[in-house]
Amino acid sequence: xxxxxxxxxxxxxxxxxxxxxxxxxxxxxxxxxxxxxxxxxxxxxxxxxxxxxxxxxxxxxxxxxxxxxxxxxxxxxxxxxxxxxxxxxxxxxxxxxxxxxxxxxxxxxxxxxxxxxxxxxxxxxxxxxxxxxxxxxxxxxxxxxxx
Length: 147
What we know:
Shape: globular
Number of strands: 7
Strand content: 15-25%
Number of helices: 5
CATH topology: Alpha/beta knot
Radius of gyration: 14 Å
Helix content: 25-40%
CATH architecture: 3-Layer(aba) Sandwich
Number of domains: 1
Distance between the termini: 21 Å
């Protein structure tokens, strides 16, 4: 689930990573992010034609619907109180929320999340861009033990 991803290059890269790394779908708000444009489609390298894309009116309501469907909601946050992605165990049905580089995930979605994770950095730069970080989180999901 994408919150406030307005950059079409990042949006396309996120769709590509989601498809390549086995996500079931990509959901985003029609009001709080980019729409599917030719730039997004090109950046996705065809993934936008392969993975289900779910454009919703309200992310908070959609989170509630996923939770009602038995999904665990996980927010990716730059927060030391969050769990390290390296030791995180994803539930079989998980919604991963990622946010913009500037704003992050809106507070209401943070509150609705069941858990939060972060990607520890080893270098001097504190974070990756949202597309890179999401790719790493999805790759770690594929290698992590399931609970």
